[in-house]
Design goal:
- The complex is a heterodimer of chains A (343) and B (862).
- With 343 residues, chain A is of the alpha+beta class.
- Among the domains of chain A are: 58-116 and 157-215, Uridine Diphospho-n-acetylenolpyruvylglucosamine Reductase, domain 3, CATH 3.30.465; 221-326, Enolase-like, domain 1 (2-Layer Sandwich), CATH 3.30.390.
- Helix content of chain A is 29%, strand content 18%.
- Chain A is built from twelve helices and twelve strands.
- A five-stranded antiparallel sheet of chain A has the order 4-5-8-6-7.
- In chain A, a hairpin with a 6-residue loop joins strand 11 and strand 12 (267-268).
- Chain B folds into three domains: 32-40 and 473-613, Aldehyde Oxidoreductase, domain 4 (2-Layer Sandwich), CATH 3.30.365; 43-142 and 206-253 and 260-293, Aldehyde oxidase/xanthine dehydrogenase, a/b hammerhead (Aldehyde Oxidoreductase, domain 3), CATH 3.90.1170; 168-200 and 296-465 and 621-793, Aldehyde Oxidoreductase, domain 4 (2-Layer Sandwich).
- In chain B, helix 6 packs across helix 7 (265-277).
- Chain B is globular and about 85 Å long.
- The chains are: A alpha+beta (343), B alpha+beta (862).
C-alpha cells in the first residue's frame, strides 16, 4: 500500500507555541484532521519535512453561538453539521458541510481544514508514479499546466464546500501570526492561483471563522447546491452558494453569490448579485441573475463530468439555489446532488 | 477418464425421497461469520518469519524499447535484498495457449504505463518502495496506439510480433446460415452503431501474493486468485520447475469479478524472488496497480443489423442478424481471443435467429490489458441488441415485452451457431418483471421525465471447454470420512465471495444428511485438492456441484451398504438426514452418522470418495465453436424505472425489478445477493464507470495514461446511489445442474444497462446509444431533438475493417453437421490468422503450441 513518508510531527499546546514553530520553520505544514494532508503526502504530491498539528490548541476548538457564529478552526465538520443552533440559524451552512465527503471523514475533518483544503486537479491528485508518467505538472514539480498548456498559472480548482457558502454568508476569517493577528472577509483569504490559492503568510494560522448574525435565517435567505457524481464522498464539481437579504417590500437589498469548483478560488458572481439589488425575488429575475452567473465561472477539464456541460450547469444550479433561497419550487432532480442533512 | 455422473433414477435410487433439509432454503454462508468478524485470512493478512517485501518498478512510458536499467542508486538503499529484471524471465506466459505474450518482467520493451520492468526486494515495504523509486530505466520511445481506429491505421510498429495482422490481435468472421437471404426476405431492416466504454472490476481487496520457499527447490504461493490451477500452470512454465514442486493456494478473495483470473506478473515475481532469496516474499498491490493489472471490460464499438418480419399473428420475428464488434484490447492478449468470440457467441440464445453473422476484431493498444469482467464479452453486444430491440419495438408499435415474448428461443433446441439451449426461463422472467413493475400499464404512459425500460440477457453456466485442451475433469471433489463423524471435503474451487464454499458444503451436507457444521472444507490448494479450473465463466456451482454430488452419493452408497448390513435392513430403505442414517419405514431404527461411518470404516477400511465433472460435448465443430457452449444457460430480465431531468440531462434509477432463471436455488439468499450485486455493478457501468485514458498534446508529450486510477475519481456508485431492487427467482430445475441449479454470478448484470437506456428513451424520447450514459449526452440528445435533428447521442460509424473470408457454417435447420464448409487451413499461414478460440480442438491445440514456441523464439532473438 502507499506509505506515509517520514516527517517530524510537532504538537504545540498553545497558539503562541504553534506560531513560534511556524516562524522557525516556514516550510512546515499545518495539519488538523489530516483527511486532506495524509493522503496527499502518501501520493507525494504534497511534501513535508515537518508537520505541525493544531489539534491540541484549545484556542482553536469549539463552536460558539451568540449574536453570530464563531467556529474554531479545529471544530469538527460533523459537530457543526449536527449542531441544532447552526441548523436552525444557518441551515445552508449545515447543508454545505453535510455535503463534504463521507461521515467518517467529517468525523475527523475540521472546518479550518476544509476552508484551507488544497486545490484539486486530475493531473495533480495522483501518485508520484503517475505524475512521473506525464512529466509532472505546474502545480507540483513540473512546468506545464496540462489542463491548458498555454496557461501561465495553475488551473487547479477550489475543492471546499464550506468556503463558497461561508463567503456568501459574509463570514470573516481570523488569522494569527507571531507579530499579531488580523480579521479579513473570508473571500480575501483566497486568490486566483491553483498553487498559491491562499492569500495567507506561511506563519499565519487560521484560528476562527465568524459568521455574522445578520446572515442567519431570521435575516437572510440562503441556499447551497452542489453538483457531484454520487450522493456521497465526492468533491463538488460545481457548487452554488447564495445569500439574499430583502427589505419588507420583498426587494433585494443585498445579495452574495459564490460558486465552488469552477475556478481556483470561490468565484464571486458579482454581476448576478448586483442585478438582483432592488428587484423582487421572482422567477424571472432569478433566472436572469443565474444567467449572469455563467460568465465568471471557468469549469476546466480537470475534474469529473464534461467541462462544457458543467458550464451549462452553472446557470441551472445557481438558479436552483436562488429559487430555493427565495422559497420558489425547484423543479429539478434533487437526489445525488443535494445532500441529505442527517437527523 | 472419469466416469460420467451417474444419474440416479427414482427406481434405482437407494435413498428414499425426502424433503431437502438445506438445498433451496436460506442458510447462513459457511464463511459468513469469519468474513464479518475479520477472521478470514486474505492473502495480505499472511505473514511469515523472515518475510520480505517486493515492489515492482513499472513503466512510466506507454510504448518503448528498454535501453538500459540502472540499479546503482537503488542498491544503496538500506534493507535492499535483491532485484529481478526481464533477463530472469525468458519464458513468456499468458492465460490462453494462443496468447503466451506476457513476461513476468519486460525483457526488451514496455507496452503500457504500468508494465513491470524491475522487481526490488527489501526487508521492509518502505525500503522496497524507496529502492524502486531509485531504479532508473532508460527508454527509447515508440509511437503509441490508443484506440482500435489507430490500430487499424497504424500496422507498424507492432505492439506484439504476433497476431492476425499489424496491430490487430484477432480478426474473426463467421456466417451461420443464409444471412443475405434473411435480409432479403425481411419486411424491414434495422441498423445501429453502438459504443460501450471499458470499465474495471474494482474489487475491494487489492491483489496480494506471498511466496514461501521450501527445501529442494519447492515453493508455495498464497495469492488472491480466482484460478489457482492456471496460476500453477503458468508458474510451472515460467519457473521451469516440475509442477509437483510448486504449490498454489488461493486465499479467500475480497472480490474477483474476473479481475483475478489471469496469472499475474507479481505472482510469478514473488515466487521467483522467494526461490532466489531463500526467504518468504510478499507483495500487495496498490490500488493504482490494480487499475494497471486491469483485465477489465473491453471497450467495444458495435454495428448491429437485423432483418425482421411481421407475422400474421402480430408477432415480429428476426430473419437474420449481422453483428460487428471492434474491441480495444489493451497491451496484452489475456483472455482477449475468447473475449472477441464472446462478443458474438451468445446473441443467439435468447431469441429465435435463423441466420446470423458475426465479425469481430480485437486490437492491441498501449493501455492496460482488457480481459474478462462479469459477463465476459457479452454485456457490450447484449446492450447493443436490447437497445436495438427497443427501437424495433418502437417502430413496429409492439410493446417491448410482447416483442420479446413473441420471438423467444425455444428450450431444448440448437441455435444457428450450434449452441444447445436446454431449460429456458426467459419468458417467465419477462412476465415476472412486467407484472411486478406494472410495465404493461405504465410503459409509455408515465409523466414526462419518467420512464420504464425492459431488457433481457443470458449467460453461461460454465464454459463448455477448459482453457487448455485436455480430456480431464473440469472439476473434482474428494470427500474423506472417518470415525470422528466429520466430513472433510476437498476441491480446487476458489471462494471469491460468491459463496462457492457454502454451495460445496451444502451439497455434501444435504446428501449425507449432516449439518453444515460437520463439514470441513479444504479448497483451492493445488497440493491438497483435486483440480477445479477456478471461479470464472460462472462454472463453479454447476461443475463443482455435480462433482460434489457424485462424490457424496458414492460416500452415501458405501455407508448405506455397511449400515444396511449391520442393521440387517435393505440399504435402499436407509434415509440420511438430521445427522442420522435410519430406516425409512421405522425411523427409530438407525445409527448416528458417526456410528454409521464407524461401521463403514470397519467394513471397508479408510474412507474416501471422489467425484468429477466433464460437461457434455457441444454439437458445434467449426473453428471458434469452443466459445459459447455451456451445459446450461441462465436467463434474466429486468425492468428499470428512471427519472430524467430534461433541463440538465441528469438521471437517476428509481427502481429495479429483476427476474433470474436460476434453475434451482441452492441457497436463495446467496442467489439474491448475487442478483443484487449484478444489478449494482451493472448500474455502475451505465451510470458512471469508465476506464478512461489521457493522452497529452502530442507535440509536447508521448504520455498515454489511465485518467484516474483511484477509487475516488474512478466513479463507482455508493450506497447513496443504489435504488431499491425487487428480485424474482424463477425456478425450473435444469437436468444439467446439481439439484437443477444454474448460474447467477454474471447473468443478472446483463439486462441492467440496456434497460436503463430504454427507460431513458421512455422518459424523454431520446436514444443514448452508448454506455455509460452521462448527463451531457442526454442533454445533447434533447437539444438535438428540440432542433428537429436526430434525437440521439452515440457513435456515428463502425470502422472499416477487412474481416477476410468468412467461415461458412450451415445451421441445424439447414441440415448442417456443426462444421464449416470452407475451413481453409492455409489461412493459418505464417501465423497470420491463428483462428482458434480459447477452447479448441486437438488439432488446433497442437497448432497453437507451435504458435507459442514461435513467439518465444522471436522474443529471444531480438
Amino acid at each position: 500500500m502507499l506509505r506515509l513518508p517520514a516527517f517530524r510531527f510537532l504538537q504545540p499546546k498553545t497558539l503562541g507555541e504553534a506560531a513560534a514553530m511556524l516562524a522557525g520553520e516556514p516550510e512546515a505544514r499545518l495539519v488538523a484532521g489530516g483527511t486532506d494532508l495524509w493522503p496527499n503526502l502518501k501520493r507525494r504530491h504534497q511534501k513535508a519535512q515537518t508537520v505541525v498539528s493544531l489539534m491540541r490548541l484549545p484556542e482553536l476548538r469549539g463552536l460558539h453561538v451568540n449574536g453570530g457564529l464563531r467556529l474554531g478552526a479545529t471544530a469538527l465538520l460533523a459537530d457543526i453539521e449536527t449542531d441544532t443552533q447552526v441548523r436552525a440559524r444557518w441551515p445552508s451552512l449545515a447543508t454545505a458541510i453535510a455535503s463534504i465527503s463521507s461521515p467518517p471523514l467529517r468525523n475527523m475533518g475540521t472546518i479550518g481544514g476544509n476552508v484551507c483544503v488544497d486545490t484539486r486537479c486530475t493531473y495533480y491528485n495522483q501518485t508520484e508514479d503517475w505524475r512521473r508518467s506525464i512529466g509532472y505538472c505546474l502545480k507540483a514539480e513540473g512546468s506545464t499546466c496540462w489542463v491548458a498548456t498555454s496557461s501561465p498559472t495553475c488551473l487547479a480548482h477550489t475543492a471546499s464546500d464550506s468556503a463558497p457558502m461561508l463567503c456568501a454568508l459574509g463570514a470573516q476569517a481570523r488569522l494569527v501570526a507571531p507579530d499579531g493577528e488580523r480579521e479579513i472577509p473570508l473571500e480575501q483569504l483566497y486568490q486566483d492561483d491553483g498553487i498559491q490559492y491562499l492569500a495567507k503568510r506561511s506563519d499565519e494560522i487560521l484560528t476562527d471563522l465568524l459568521v455574522p448574525g445578520e446572515a442567519d435565517a431570521a435575516h437572510c435567505r440562503s441556499a447551497f447546491w452542489k453538483l457531484r457524481r454520487r450522493g456521497t464522498i465526492d468533491f463538488a464539481v460545481l457548487s452554488a452558494a447564495v445569500a439574499l437579504w430583502t427589505d419588507p417590500s420583498g426587494e433585494v437589498t443585498r445579495a452574495r453569490i459564490y460558486l465552488g469548483a469552477v475556478g481556483s478560488q470561490p468565484v464571486a458572481a458579482t454581476d448576478a448579485a448586483q442585478f438582483l439589488i432592488g428587484k423582487p425575488l421572482t422567477a424571472e429575475t432569478l433566472a436572469e441573475a443565474a444567467r449572469l452567473a455563467r460568465k465568471p465561472a471557468y469549469p476546466m477539464d480537470n475534474t469529473d463530468f464534461q467541462a462544457q456541460w458543467r458550464g451549462t450547469m452553472v446557470v441551472q444550479y445557481t438558479e436552483a439555489a436562488l429559487r430555493e433561497a427565495a422559497g420558489l419550487p425547484v423543479e429539478r432532480l434533487a437526489p445525488r446532488h443535494l445532500p441529505v442533512v442527517a437527523g | 477418464m472419469a466416469e460420467p455422473i451417474r444419474k440416479i433414477t427414482p427406481e434405482e435410487d437407494p435413498a428414499p425421497e425426502r424433503e431437502p433439509r438445506l438445498i433451496g432454503k436460506p442458510f447462513r454462508r459457511v464463511d459468513g461469520r469469519a468474513k464479518v468478524t475479520g477472521a478470514t485470512r486474505f492473502a495480505d493478512d499472511l505473514s511469515f518469519p523472515r518475510m520480505c517485501w517486493v515492489r515492482l518498478v513499472r513503466s512510466t512510458v506507454p510504448h518503448a524499447v528498454i535501453r538500459s536499467i540502472d540499479l546503482g542508486e537503488a542498491e544503496k538503499v538500506p534493507g535492499v535484498l535483491g532485484f529481478l529484471t526481464g533477463k530472469d524471465f525468458p519464458i513468456p506466459f499468458g492465460i490462453l495457449p494462443v496468447s503466451q505474450d506476457e513476461h513476468a518482467l519486460c525483457p526488451d520493451k514496455v507496452r503500457f504505463v504500468g508494465d513491470p520492468v524491475v522487481a526490488v526486494a527489501a526487508t521492509t515495504e518502505d525500503a522496497a518502495y524507496e529502492a524502486a523509486w531509485k531504479v532508473k530505466v532508460d527508454y527509447e520511445p515508440l509511437p503509441t496506439i490508443g484506440s482500435v481506429q489507430e490500430a487499424l491505421d497504424t500496422p507498424e510498429p507492432r505492439i506484439h510480433d504476433y497476431g492476425d495482422e499489424g496491430n490487430l490481435h484477432k480478426v474473426v468472421s463467421m456466417t451461420f446460415g443464409a444471412v443475405e437471404e434473411g435480409f432479403a426476405a425481411a419486411d424491414e431492416i434495422f441498423e445501429d452503431t453502438i459504443w460501450y466504454e471499458g470499465n474495471t472490476h474494482l474489487p475491494m481487496e487489492q491483489h496480494s501474493a506471498v511466496a514461501v520457499p521450501e527445501d529442494d527447490d519447492r515453493v508455495t504461493l498464497w495469492s488472491s486468485s480466482q484460478t489457482p490451477h492456471y496460476v500453477h500452470r503458468a508458474l510451472t512454465k515460467v519457473l521451469g520447475l516440475p509442477a509437483s514442486r510448486i504449490r498454489v493456494v488461493a486465499c479467500s478473495n475480497g472480490g474477483g469479478f474476473g479481475g483475478k483470473s489471469d496469472p499475474f506478473n507479481h505472482e510469478i515475481v514473488v515466487a521467483k524472488m522467494a526461490l532466489k532469496l531463500g526467504r518468504p516474499v510478499k507483495i500487495t498491490l496498490t490500488r493504482e496497480e490494480v487499475f494497471l493489472c486491469h483485465r477489465g471490460r473491453h471497450p467495444v464499438l458495435m454495428s448491429v443489423k437485423t432483418g425482421i418480419k411481421r407475422e400474421s399473428d402480430g408477432r415480429v420475428s428476426i430473419t437474420a442478424q449481422r453483428l460487428q464488434t471492434a474491441l480495444d484490447g489493451g497491451a496484452y492478449g489475456s483472455y482477449g481471443v475468447a473475449s472477441t468470440y464472446y462478443t458474438g457467441a451468445l446473441q443467439t440464445v435468447t431469441y429465435k435467429m435463423p441466420a446470423y453473422e458475426f465479425q469481430g476484431v480485437r486490437a492491441f493498444t498501449n493501455k492496460p490489458p482488457c480481459g474478462p469482467k462479469r459477463g465476459h464479452g457479452t454485456p457490450q453486444p447484449r446492450f447493443a441488441f436490447e437497445v436495438h430491440l427497443d427501437k424495433i419495438a418502437a417502430k413496429t408499435g409492439l410493446n417491448p415485452a410482447d416483442l420479446r415474448l413473441g420471438m423467444l428461443a425455444e428450450p431444448d433446441t440448437v441455435t444457428a451457431n450450434w449452441l444447445r439451449v436446454g431449460t429456458m426461463g426467459l419468458g417467465k422472467c419477462i412476465e415476472a418483471v412486467v407484472a411486478g413493475s406494472g410495465f404493461r400499464e405504465r410503459w409509455g404512459k408515465l409523466p414526462p421525465g419518467r420512464g420504464l425500460g425492459l431488457a433481457c440477457g443470458s449467460y453461461l453456466c460454465g464454459a463448455g471447454l477448459p482453457i487448455y485442451w485436455n480430456h480431464m475433469p473440469q472439476s473434482g471433489v474428494m470427500i474423506k470420512l472417518d470415525r470422528s463423524g466429520g466430513v472433510a471435503v476437498f476441491c480446487g474451487q476458489a471462494e471469491i465471495g460468491q459463496g462457492s464454499d457454502s454451495v460445496l458444503a451444502a451439497i455434501v451436507a444435504e446428501i449425507l444428511g449432516v449439518s453444515l457444521s460437520d463439514i470441513r472444507l479444504c479448497v483451492a490448494d493445488t497440493d491438497l485438492t483435486p483440480v477445479d479450473l477456478g471461479s470464472y465463466s460462472s462454472r463453479v456451482t454447476l461443475m463443482m456441484g455435480n462433482a460434489a454430488v457424485q462424490a457424496a452419493e458414492r460416500a452415501r452408497e458405501q455407508i448405506a451398504q455397511a449400515v444396511g448390513q449391520q442393521l440387517e435392513i435393505p440399504s435402499g430403505r436407509l434415509v440420511f438426514a438430521d445427522g442420522r442414517v435410519f430406516d425409512a419405514t421405522d425411523p427409530d431404527t438407525g445409527l448416528s452418522f458417526q456410528d454409521a461411518v464407524i461401521a463403514t470404516e470397519a467394513r471397508f477400511g479408510t474412507l474416501a470418495t471422489t467425484g468429477s465433472y466433464i460437461p457434455p460435448r457441444s454439437p458445434g465443430k467449426y473453428r471458434g465453436a469452443g466459445v459459447g457452449p455451456s451445459p446450461a444457460y441462465s436467463y434474466s430480465a429486468a425492468v428499470i424505472e428512471v427519472e430524467v431531468d430534461p433541463a440538465t440531462g441528469l438521471w437517476n434509477p428509481l427502481h429495479v425489478w429483476i427476474a433470474h432463471d436460476i434453475g434451482k436455488s441452492i441457497n436463495p439468499v446467496l442467489v439474491m445477493g448475487q442478483v443484487e450485486g449484478g444489478v449494482y455493478m451493472g448500474l455502475g457501468e451505465v451510470m458512471m464507470e469508465e476506464s478512461a485514458f489521457r493522452r497529452l498534446p502530442r507535440h509536447l508529450s508521448n504520455a498515454l495514461v489511465h485518467k484516474f486510477p483511484s477509487m475516488l475519481e474512478y466513479k463507482s456508485p455508493s450506497f447513496a446511489d443504489m435504488p431499491p431492487v425487487t428480485t424474482y427467482l424463477i425456478e425450473d430445475p435444469d437436468p444439467q445442474g446439481p439439484f437443477g441449479a444454474k448460474e447467477v454470478g454474471q447473468g443478472p448484470l446483463l439486462p441492467v444497462m440496456p434497460a436503463v437506456a430504454n427507460a431513458i428513451y421512455d422518459a424523454v424520447g431520446v436514444r443514448i446509444d452508448q454506455s455509460p450514459i452521462h448527463p451531457h449526452m442526454v442533454l445533447k440528445a434533447l437539444q438535438a431533438k428540440a432542433k428537429g435533428d436526430e434525437a440521439r447521442f452515440g457513435p456515428k460509424a463502425f470502422p472499416e475493417v477487412d474481416f477476410g473470408e468468412t467461415l461458412l457454417v450451415p445451421t441445424p435447420a439447414q441440415g448442417g453437421d456443426g462444421k464449416a464448409i470452407n475451413d481453409f487451413k492455409d489461412k493459418l499461414r505464417s501465423g497470420m490468422r491463428s483462428a482458434s478460440g480459447t477452447m479448441m480442438s486437438r488439432e488446433e491445440a497442437l497448432r497453437n503450441k507451435k504458435v507459442s514456441v514461435l513467439t518465444t523464439e522471436l522474443k529471444g532473438a531480438r
